[in-house]
Amino acid sequence: MAGHPTIVRTIAALDRALGKFRGPGESVALVPTMGALHDGHLALVRRARQRADRVVVSIFVNPAQFAPHEDFASYPRTFDTDIATLAAHRVDLVWTPAAETMYGAGFATAVQVKGPAATDLEDRFRPHFFGGVATVVAKLFAQCRPNFALFGEKDYQQLKTVTRMAADLDLKVKVIGVPTVREKDGLALSSRNVYLSPAERTAAPTLYRVLKESAARIAAGEPIAKVMSEGWIAIEEAGFALDYFEARHAETLGRVETLGDGPIRLLAAARLGKTRLIDNVAV
Ligand code: AMP
User: How far apart are the CA of 177 and the centre of ligand 1, in A?
Assistant: First the structure.
């Protein structure tokens, strides 16, 4: 029988819980999430279990990373199921603060990461996003003081941004990236996939298929510009409206022109009806 995780909603309760289970030499891994948990999140939890003595999962739908026109209000919230799932995965602690606890009266600080957060990818279309992410993740790290933090490669620019911030601010947390978990047909798991209509769901795996095919062609030596412009057309023909589909340096996210400029990562964001999907693959 899996035990129930301790659920805490206030900083005082979090401190008490962390103090109780963090014995001398015991390590803590944090998995930050916005809930609506799926197997992608659980891959992070499993890696956390392997790396650390104690696993903390935060569930916080962070208002600061949504623009006013985005889906904060309708974002899926499945708290009771999430807790049952986390119990089955032997998570020790769930940190789920209210928005007023996270952003108290007079809150006036923002963490701004340059470098990977400012490479004209997600930041071009969601200019508010990485400021919101960096600020809340810095707070989560300060609150939970983890030795390890697990983030998905699915949100590749976010992974690089958080890694940069943790290093730059000497937060003494090792950020670990976890490969993307996919449906059998290749679609990356996402809490937002529930928004897809049946027809959109059928079209959705094209994004990953074209990313994979394009990566294979680039690896085989075809010109990057040609592969990317043909891939762009193939994705749009499947009914997507692309925000970006780009080949970038896998570490800096800077622009690349030839295979020799690599290692290369292909990154895409595209709208299918009202749903915005992002994905990326290594070349
Ligand atoms: P979210 O709840 O969407 O903010 O995601 C929380 C964490 O889970 C982030 O580090 C994501 O990158 C990660 N994640 C989301 N989807 C996947 C996936 N399909 N595979 C691996 N990690 C994922």
Answer: 10
Which pTM value belongs to this model? 0.96
Atom 14 of ligand 1, residue of closest alpha carbon:
152
Q: Is the CB of 34 under 6 A from ligand 1?
A: yes
User: Considering only CA atoms, which residue is closest to atom 11 of ligand 1?
Assistant: 152
Strands of 241-249's sheet in order across: 241-249, 264-272, 275-282
Using CA atoms, how far apart are residues 97 and 31, in angstroms rounded to an integer?
A: 15
* DSSP run (H or E) holding 265: strand 264-272
Is the pLDDT at 199 greater than 50? The verdict is yes
Give the residue numbers marked as catalytic.
41
42 lines ligand 1 (CB under 6 A): no
User: 41 CA to middle of ligand 1, Å?
Assistant: 5
Longest dimension (CA), the chain: 58
Assign 258 a pLDDT band (cuts: 50, 70, 90): very high
CA-based torsion, 65, 136, 82, 12: positive or negative: negative
Cis? peptide before 263, omega within 30° of 0? yes
Encoded tokens for 174: 């090792």
Give me the half-sphere count of Cα atoms (radius 13 Å) on the Cβ side of residue 158: 27
Q: Given phi > 0 = left and psi -120 to 50 = alpha, else beta, which region is 243?
A: alpha
139-154 pLDDT, tens per residue?
A: 999 999 999 999 999 9
First to last CA, the chain: 43
Residue nearest to atom 17 of ligand 1 (CA): 40
Q: Is the CB of 279 under 6 A from ligand 1?
A: no
pLDDT at 1: 40
